[in-house]
Design goal:
181 residues, alpha/beta, 3-stranded parallel β-sheet, 5 helices, 30% strand
Length: 181
Amino acid sequence: RTASRGDFVFSADRLIRLVVEEGLNQLPYTECTVTTPTGYKYEGVKFEKGNCGVSIMRSGEAMEQGLRDCCRSIRIGKILIQSDEETQRAKVYYAKFPPDIYRRKVLLMYPILSTGNTVIEAVKVLIEHGVQPSVIILLSLFSTPHGAKSIIQEFPDITILTTEVHPVAPTHFGQKYFGTD
């Protein structure tokens, strides 16, 4: 509550990095041999091609750098969804994805999962573009039980990764992170 914006962003970025790395652990990989500078052969792994990130604007954009820090050349799409203040219905205003997103595994980035409505609309848009829910991994920092349950009821094959499930979600995250509070 009393953290400076700098401390808040620092801590948020650390959490984001942990969630992103766990999301990457869920992606398919192949084994490979790496030759070190000393000539030693090391049996390692590398990601299979065909992964991408999609951020739900605006707060999801806070997670993009964490993904880029781990995967420099990963493609990132964006979705802008806003909820009507009176009806709480989510409406899609913008969606831009890699043209072959239907062949990719998708890391869907949205840090605060409250009702689940925004994510449900985002997944519907991804499905319209040929993405199967089973290849979507939702990366979230905080989730309410209601929000997670709503998404799983609608799309039982989606994977949700979060750091905490709590009845109250910190809905001020985006404002504090971007300094617009």
